[in-house]
Design goal:
Length: 361
């Protein structure tokens, strides 16, 4: 069978890491008899440079014509906040997620045994293991609310960002979390700020309704400030953590840090259909772009998530996971995770190594 993948290589290190993920996909395709074809889609700063806007007309349609979307990263100082919104890469990211209806962002945060020394937490905390899934609402809340900026007579400029959530938006992300928990360790921790925010009180009441419906799943409410503390104190307590957009943005950054390098972590953004968008959690890393030193593992694992969630290829996805684990176990390291006694790999060498491990497994 042929699968069509929209490739958004993006800016900075995006093209470098996507190139390595494609290498690995080709190795999987050869081994399992799948054929992948790629549709190049321009989005981000590179699109601004090419056609004057970061989200060119027809981008969503191109992606919808594919079976899944694989994205590197977008952004960079060249297209900063001084530029008009339609030229900024972040505008394009928010727009594509919204247009493809990708309301659920899944970020696994797992401490790989081979990377235990990279965990910044106390050894006894790290030894308990970390294996959680952050489920972040992606198309609602304060990032999509109305923005205001106005002059006041006595306090200078004042700004406001509106945060809104509907029951329907909360319920669909909540269901995702409970369904995922059933496939994992059967526990949902819902993060909110219900002691202060009205949106959080609604969030909590919808989650409680779902908790009754999914009564086989263990459930707890956690206030966001406590969640931030618990993530560094005892992350092993968490299985699926579900939360709204901004809290999820911040907590998933924290969760990724406690598991080692930002370059190692993938994410999936899903909607109602199987087609999703798969990407590493890192940005375009302009400071290391073009040097062939980026870590491609986050993007390679994102390609693995794509095989699992978009194409139902559980075995093929597991093969990618195992090859990554093996590469790390054998001591191969890119610059960001290099330690004494390990074998240095450039970005493209790491891609080659993982592809070879798949071919030869
Ligand atoms: P970043 O993730 O790009 O980089 C943070 C630090 O981590 C840098 O030191 C970078 O060199 C390092 N790093 C990131 N990925 C790495 C990898 N794969 N291998 C080795 N080192 C890696 O975050 P930033 O510097 O805050 O943002 C840079 C640009 O990326 C900004 O324009 C930002 O808006 C954009 N951004 C895009 C996305 C996305 O496309 N989804 C996400 C976050 C940030």
């Amino acid at each position: 069978m042929n699968y069509k993948i929209a490739l958004i290589r993006g800016d900075g290190i995006g093209p470098e890491v996507v190139g390595e993920a494609v290498k690995v996909l080709e190795a999987v395709g050869q081994k399992f008899g799948h054929s992948f074809t790629y549709e190049e889609v321009l989005l981000g700063g590179c699109a601004t440079d090419a056609v004057g806007k970061s989200y060119p007309d027809g981008t969503a349609e191109k992606c919808r014509a594919c079976d899944a979307v694989l994205l590197g990263a977008v952004g960079g100082p060249k297209w900063g906040s001084d530029k008009p919104a339609e030229q900024r890469p972040e505008t394009a990211l928010l727009a594509i997620r919204k247009d493809l209806g990708l309301y659920a962002n899944l970020r696994p945060a797992a401490l790989r045994p081979a990377m235990a020394d990279a965990c910044p937490l106390k050894r006894e905390t790290a030894e308990k293991g970390i294996d959680l899934m952050m489920v972040r609402e992606l198309t609602g809340g304060i990032y999509f609310g109305q923005r205001e900026r106005y002059d006041t007579p006595d306090r200078g400029v004042e700004c406001a960002d509106r945060m809104a959530y509907s029951e329907q938006e909360i319920e669909r992300i909540g269901r995702r979390a409970f369904e995922l928990a059933r496939l994992r360790r059967n526990k949902v921790s819902s993060v909110d700020k219900a002691n202060v925010l009205e949106t959080s009180r609604l969030w909590r009441s919808v989650m409680h309704r779902l908790a009754e419906e999914y009564s086989d799943v263990e459930y707890e409410d956690v206030l966001v400030d406590n969640a931030a503390m618990q993530l560094v104190r005892d992350p092993a307590q968490f299985d699926v953590v579900v939360t709204e957009n901004m809290f999820g943005d911040i907590l998933s950054g924290e969760a990724s840090m406690i598991t080692g390098s930002i370059g190692l972590i993938p994410s999936a953004s899903l909607g109602e259909t199987k087609r999703g968008m798969y990407e590493p959690i890192h940005g375009s890393a302009p400071d290391i772009a073009g040097q062939n030193i980026a870590n491609p593992i986050g993007t390679i694992l994102a390609a693995g998530m794509m095989l699992k969630y978009a194409f139902d290829m559980d075995q093929e996805a597991a093969e990618i996971e195992e090859a990554v684990e093996a590469a790390l176990r054998l001591g191969y390291r890119t610059k960001d995770i290099m330690e004494d006694g390990k074998t240095y790999r450039t970005c493209s060498q790491m891609g080659d190594t993982i592809a070879e491990l798949i071919t030869n497994a």
